[in-house]
Amino acid sequence: MNDNLVMFSCAEDTGWMSHQLTIVICEKMYAVCQLEPAAMVPTWAEGPEFVSITRTASELSIVCQQDMLPGDVRAEKNRRLMRIEGKLGFELTGVLASVTAPLSKAELSIFAISTYDTDYLLIAGEDLQKATEMLEAAGHTIQQSR
Known about the structure:
Elements: H1 11-14, E1 22-35, E2 52-55, E3 60-65, E4 74-84, H2 95-105, E5 110-114, E6 119-124, H3 128-137, E7 141-144
Parallel strand pairs: 1-7
Antiparallel strand pairs: 1-3, 1-4, 2-3, 4-6, 5-6
């Protein structure tokens, strides 16, 4: 057996994903934007609500509320933000897998972001109902933000 080979399995097959999470759906629409790697972080990317800014050698990626976005920015729009409720310790494993596996099984595309405290998923607005159904069927609790 190759020691470098790691095999993954779905919860349905092995039951190893035991997380039953509360997932909060934020009511506003979000966009995933791409700017040039050397671009300055624009002022429209600031705000009191969820914003994620990531710079790599090949891009500056910004996730923000869609209504903050100027019209000339390259972006994937009409995304709904889902937040895993609570603070997730660094020692926890399989948290993202427990939510992405049912969404993958339903062939729903996601954009995942992790912060120090928790994980977030962005899903196409038109896929929200199906995503909610799949996550509830997997044992998760879905709530709307207040």
